[in-house]
Design brief:
- The complex is a heterotrimer of chains A (about 550), B (about 350) and C (about 300).
- With about 550 residues, chain A is of the alpha+beta class.
- Chain A contains 17 helices and 20 strands.
- In chain A, strand 14, helix 13 and strand 15 form a beta-alpha-beta unit.
- In chain A, helix 10 packs antiparallel against helix 12.
- The longest helix of chain A is centred in the C-terminal third of the chain and has 17 residues.
- Chain B is mainly alpha-helical.
- In chain B, helix 2 packs across helix 5, helix 6 packs across helix 9 and helix 11 packs antiparallel against helix 13.
- With about 300 residues, chain C is mostly helical.
- Chain C contains ten helices and no strands.
- Classes of the chains: A alpha+beta (about 550), B mainly alpha (about 350), C mainly alpha (about 300).
- Chains in contact: A-B, A-C, B-C.
- At the B-C interface, helix 1, helix 2, helix 7, helix 8 and helix 9 of B face helix 1, helix 4, helix 5, helix 6 and helix 8 of C.
């Protein structure tokens, strides 16, 4: 039974100070147990069934779905999690304290040294087209997720499983890898232990189970536009990268849910447009607002409530160790010493976000805000190193994604600080496609430094550590087998304490080699109008990949209150 | 071509006399000649489009194969798609393809034709909305202004049109949003899918159309007013009409306005090309899912096939607009239709 | 961009004053106020423009302005009239007035450079077409038609995107639009002039082609070109602002009015001054240019 701490939170810790103040003094400073970040919540209206809302989605991230919503082909799947979750639901849900909760699946078990994962599905569930939701359907989906379409799109899961053609790592899974061991039991057999397997499912394509009958009947093109799943809502209309209207799924398994009758997801150009729309009453929810000035402004609006989620994605500065100037560890150390992030955090971000020195955030597991051996701000040392490495003689480029004002402001502020110390920096910002191209140009030898986020709820998943620090990732500036080993070892155990110990070692190793400074954990803020209630909107959830996954079946709108 | 003669007429001394020079040919021959003259322009436009597009880095193959493709695979696909052929071969292939009506496939997999079919109508409606309203308002205001040159109505119209000419559409847009959408709530902030009912559709398009239309209104008002005033003061037939005792309003509307419409039509036709450019920015600002917004998206995604297709369509629209303006002028002007008698 | 661009027909559009009409009885007081009005309409916009140009180009030479690209984070988001920052600072601490001044430099430089290129190349094409006529005219006219048919903004975007944003590429892209527009105007004017009696006289007298062009045609089309160019500069500034606004013009951190407007719009409800300040400067500049063009046309009797 999925538990929601939705509405009436007693201790209504109103947002603005919550994240910054509470996380810096939070209890999650220990590294042994799983972090229990202080749960932020705001007082919400009483639950009410029925009604419709408009959810605004920002372009450049969730507001674009040019590839449709088929899990196996949607390259923007993890950004589009709102619609995917609304239509397909989730197997498991991430609760406010980081606990894994049942939804379409009821339980899981590790065995065989964390190499076998058995998942029990909920019984009696139907897809919205009436066909049964069972192990066969799940297996069909997961095998399809490894198919040519997903591989081409680069979104196939990274499970280490036996392949039908051992020589081709992109071939279909072997029969033994994914199988139904009962009408409602699915088993995955990995070749290497993975204690983070379930965590890694969140916001990735295996989480979203499509109706096999519908895919085969409609054909892939139509299915991408009108997907069919077992989630709380079904698609009424879908205009790519523009608007999706969904309505309540009458066959949804949970009685009394979803609360809402229908949701309209509408793409808007950005934070400002969303805020204006909310002020004008044309939107009720906007996730992921990052513009500090608008957040301050929204806090003053009595009709709008603001919830800071529990951040799990620290901003880090990636330094490309494959090319000059940052192939020189002393040059990298200079960058560490040259950056004073406290004033940036204070003056630009209004101390909204907690500082961190590793790839973990207060919302995720193994949170470690300070790392032993981390080189902090030291302008004298910086000047020395800059002179001795000749860093003031070259001009290097600092890049980032252009859809994030936080990222852009950060690059500007860093550039100012560094140039004051004599370095010469050019700034570049790109959209997602160009960013990928910038990383991959010249076999990864073009870019020099990037501001990105590194880290996720579970560092082994999604845009976690590996994504930025693994030698095999095209988006990583580090090629260090020792770090690879550490990260692999951290993934294996099922015992959280053991995993955290490895991650702490990894963070120290990164600091020791000056692979990339971390700055602060970005905590996304979700705005909603008064009367809206639900997890992720009035009760904080840990962010999975930058933003938390909102279970739309538990969201309601009670405007009269 | 009519344009040049227009300039001729209005620049030459005694230009109040709107007679045309060597226009002795009957309408049909003129139409035929215009059409013939348009063909090399059309071809030139396709050629220029392709030349410019070729200068762009084309990573269609890379995009098609995805992130994990090896350079060898990318090169192979490039070869299969014919992207490594010399320029003329590629141009010829593309031209043939276009002449068959196929504008290619975008990197998202959809055909450019279908994407155009989805988005172009929205833009055309938006532009039509802007054009029609601005024309109507311009006519009304210009007539009021020309009735008494240098009078109050005239001065006000000049001031407003000066503002319209000088304000950037992207500045006007956000002023309109703040005032009419946020503060007054009359129109949606985000136009998005434009709504299901005709009313909500037009409500969603009103602010974007106003952003495009206000500068248009300014230009048309000025043009029309200048033309009307000039006619009222120079043309013989006007003096005759006045002498006969026809009321000044009637003279203005029935006679002068009719003649001025030609100039206006010409200008409107010529405008089409610029309008699509303006539409791109406005559509992005308001999230109107039209072809301009879509083009900007394609440009930032390096989606070269789509860019080629859309730019070609834009250019064709412009050429057609010019052509139609020319033809309309040629066909409607009775002096041309029946042959000119003055020189 | 602001308006469908000054096609040659439109060149005559923007004459606010009626051509001298039938003689009428005008008192000397009315005459004086008319003259005063005309003078004001010329000198006020001229004055504003001179002030803006001085502010953008001369003031930085006299007075040390804070850097327009590097800010001090400690003074981020200061409101206008703060000490040391007369128009305030933006969210990373860069002085806004500096950004206006240097952005203005960039706006004027790009617009004027493009106009000059347009004038030189465009009128060369236009005069050649108009003067020599026949097949030369036919070919050149088609070329101009093709260039004009290309939607200006799109062309500029594609060039800027393909070649990468930079001031030079910006000028290049905008010239592609300026040249055919000027070309058409000069061609039209040349055609008109060519059939004038004095031209025939010159030819009969045996004056050579190029001499005719230089001594007769150019001076006669000059007023049209000048007034036309002033309008053109205004439009180019707006067009260039549009490209900057979209991110395809001047690359950051170099300041430009379009960039400022784009960034300002992202925090408009919270801090409207970020978007209002560059917008007002943009508006005032273009109004001044347009009014000056009008007034000059009126003074020189250009039709």
């Amino acid at each position: 039974m999925s538990v929601r701490t939705a509405s009436l939170a007693g201790a209504a810790a109103l947002v603005l100070g919550a994240a910054a103040c509470s996380s810096s003094g939070s209890s999650s400073n220990n590294t042994s147990a799983s972090s229990s970040p202080s749960i932020g919540a705001i007082s919400a209206a009483p639950v009410k069934s029925g009604g419709s809302i408009t959810v605004l989605e920002g372009k450049g991230f969730s507001g674009d779905w040019p590839f449709g919503l088929d899990p196996a082909t949607n390259t923007d799947g993890s950004a589009d999690q709102d619609y995917m979750t609304a239509v397909f639901g989730q197997l498991f849900e991430l609760g406010g304290s980081g606990q894994i909760q049942p939804d379409l699946a009821t339980s899981y078990a590790f065995s065989n040294g964390a190499k076998t994962i058995t998942i029990n599905l909920r019984q009696g569930v139907k897809f919205s087209d009436g066909t049964p939701f069972n192990a066969a359907a799940v297996v069909w989906n997961w095998e399809r997720d490894f198919g040519p379409l997903a591989v081409k799109a680069g979104i196939a899961p990274e499970w280490v499983i036996a392949r039908s053609n051992p020589k081709n790592p992109n071939s279909a899974p072997a029969a033994s890898a994914i199988k139904a061991t009962g009408p409602y039991t699915v088993q995955v057999n990995l070749l290497a232990p993975d204690g983070g397997f379930i965590n890694q499912l969140f916001d990735t394509i295996p989480m979203w189970i499509a109706s096999p009958t519908a895919v085969q009947k409609e054909g892939e093109t139509k299915f991408a536009q009108y997907p069919v799943g077992a989630g709380p809502f079904t698609v009424v209309s879908d205009s790519y990268s523009d608007q999706i209207v969904v309505k309540k799924n009458p066959l949804y398994w949970q009685p009394g849910r979803p609360y809402l009758q229908s949701i309209t997801f509408k793409s808007v150009s950005g934070d400002e447009a969303a805020y204006e729309a909310m002020l004008a009453g044309q939107g009720q929810v906007y996730e992921d607002m990052s513009t500090t000035q608008l957040l301050d402004e929204a806090a003053k609006q009595p009709s709008i409530q603001e919830l800071n989620e529990l951040g799990t994605s620290p901003y880090d500065l990636q330094l490309n160790t494959a090319v000059a100037p940052f192939n020189n560890p002393k040059a990298r150390e200079a960058i560490y010493a040259a950056t004073n992030f406290t004033p940036i955090l204070q003056h630009i971000f209004g101390n909204r976000y907690p500082v961190t020195e590793s790839f973990t955030g207060p919302g995720g597991i193994c949170y470690e805000p300070t790392v032993p051996g981390y080189q902090g701000y030291n302008p004298t040392l910086a000047k020395q190193l800059i002179a001795s490495t000749g860093l003031d003689k070259v001009t290097f480029q600092l890049g980032t994604i252009n859809s994030s004002p936080v990222a852009i402001d950060t690059t500007e502020a860093l550039r100012t600080e560094w140039e004051a110390l004599g370095m010469k920096v050019t700034i570049a910002s790109w959209n997602l496609t160009e960013l990928i191209a910038a990383f991959e140009a010249n076999h990864g030898k073009s870019w020099q430094s990037m501001i990105q986020t590194a880290g996720a709820f579970d560092p082994s998943s999604g845009v976690g550590v590996g994504f930025r620090f693994d030698s095999l990732s095209p988006f990583s500036g580090v090629h260090d087998p020792k770090l690879d080993t550490l990260l692999n070892e951290a993934e294996a155990p099922t015992n959280l304490a053991a995993r955290c110990s490895y991650y702490n070692q990894a963070a120290e190793y990164i600091a020791k080699n000056y692979y990339g400074p971390f700055y602060f954990t970005f905590s996304p803020a979700n705005l909603s109008v008064k009367g809206i209630g639900g997890p992720g909107l009035t009760a904080a959830l840990p962010a999975v990949a930058v933003a938390p996954t909102i279970p739309w079946e538990d969201v309601y709108y009670n405007p009269s209150s | 071509m009519a344009l040049v003669q227009q300039v001729q007429l209005q620049s030459a001394p005694g230009a109040g006399n709107r007679a045309r020079r060597a226009a002795g040919s009957p309408a049909l021959r003129l139409v035929g000649r215009r059409l013939l003259a348009a063909i090399p322009v059309l071809w030139g436009v396709t050629f220029l489009t392709y030349v410019v597009m070729s200068a762009l880095p084309n990573d269609t193959a890379q995009a098609a194969l995805g992130l994990k493709a090896t350079p060898a695979q990318v090169a192979a696909l490039n070869h299969a798609l014919g992207l490594d052929q010399p320029f003329w071969v590629r141009y010829w292939r593309w031209l043939v393809q276009v002449l068959h009506g196929n504008l290619g496939t975008s990197i998202t997999g959809q055909s450019v034709n279908s994407e155009l079919a989805q988005h172009l109508p929205t833009t055309l409606i938006l532009l039509a909305y802007a054009l029609v309203v601005s024309l109507l308002l311009a006519i009304i205001v210009a007539v009021l202004a020309a009735r008494r040159p240098n009078g109050i109505a005239d001065r006000i119209s000049l001031a407003i049109s000066m503002l319209g000419l000088s304000i950037a559409p992207y500045v006007l847009a956000f002023i309109l949003i703040i005032v009419f959408a946020v503060k007054l709530g009359w129109f949606p902030v985000v136009s998005g899918s434009l709504g299901n009912t005709p009313l909500s559709y037009f409500k969603a398009l009103t602010l974007p159309a106003a952003s495009i239309g206000f500068p248009l209104f300014a230009v048309y008002t000025r043009l029309l007013r200048a033309d009307l005033v000039e006619q009222m003061q120079r043309e013989d037939y006007i003096t005759t009409a006045k002498a006969k005792g026809v009321s000044p309003w009637r003279v203005l509307i029935k006679h002068a306005l009719r003649n001025s419409m030609f100039t206006l039509i010409t200008v409107v036709g010529l405008n089409l090309g610029t309008l699509v450019g303006a539409a791109a920015i406005i559509e992005t600002l308001f999230s109107v899912p039209g072809i301009g917004y879509f083009l900007l998206n394609s440009i930032s995604n390096h989606d070269v096939p789509t860019i080629e297709g859309i730019v070609l369509v834009f250019a064709l629209i412009t050429v057609l607009g010019n052509l139609l303006a020319d033809l309309a002028y040629a066909v409607l002007d009775p002096r041309i239709r029946y042959g000119s008698t003055t020189s | 961009m602001a308006a469908p661009l000054p096609e040659p027909a439109l060149a005559s559009v923007l004459a606010p004053q009626s051509p001298p009409g039938l003689p009428s009885l005008v008192t000397s007081r009315q005459l004086r106020s008319q003259r005063l009005g005309r003078a004001l309409r010329l000198w006020i916009p001229a004055g504003v423009l001179i002030f803006l140009l001085a502010m953008c180009f001369l003031w930085p030479l006299v007075y040390q302005l804070p850097s327009p690209t590097n800010g001090d984070i400690l003074v981020a988001s200061e409101p206008p009239f703060s000490p040391g920052h007369i128009l305030g600072t933006d969210q990373v601490g860069v002085d806004i007035f500096s950004q206006i001044v240097y952005g203005g430099q960039e706006a004027f430089e790009v617009a004027i450079a493009t106009t000059i290129i347009g004038l030189v190349v465009g009128s060369a094409i236009g005069i050649t077409a108009g003067y020599f006529g026949r097949w030369v005219d036919a070919v050149l006219s088609r070329v101009l038609d093709v260039l004009i048919a290309f939607p200006a903004l799109v062309l500029a975007l594609v060039i800027a995107q393909g070649l990468g944003p930079s001031k030079f590429h910006l000028i290049l892209a905008l010239s592609a639009f300026a040249i055919p527009t000027v070309g058409r105007v000069t061609r039209g004017s040349t055609l008109v002039l060519r059939s004038q009696p004095f031209m025939t006289a010159a030819r009969l007298a045996g004056t050579r082609g190029w001499r005719i062009i230089v001594r007769h045609i150019v001076p006669n089309i000059m007023p049209t070109l000048v007034t036309f160019s002033l309008l053109g500069i205004g439009i180019l500034i707006i067009l260039e602002g549009a490209l900057d606004y979209l991110g395809y013009g001047t690359p950051p951190p170099n300041p430009s009015w379009g960039n400022m407007i784009a960034t300002g719009q992202t925090v408009m409800t919270a801090q409207p001054e970020y978007v209002l300040i560059p917008s007002i400067f943009l508006l005032v500049t273009v109004i001044a240019l347009n009014m000056l063009g009008d007034a000059l046309r009126e003074r020189w009797g250009v039709q």
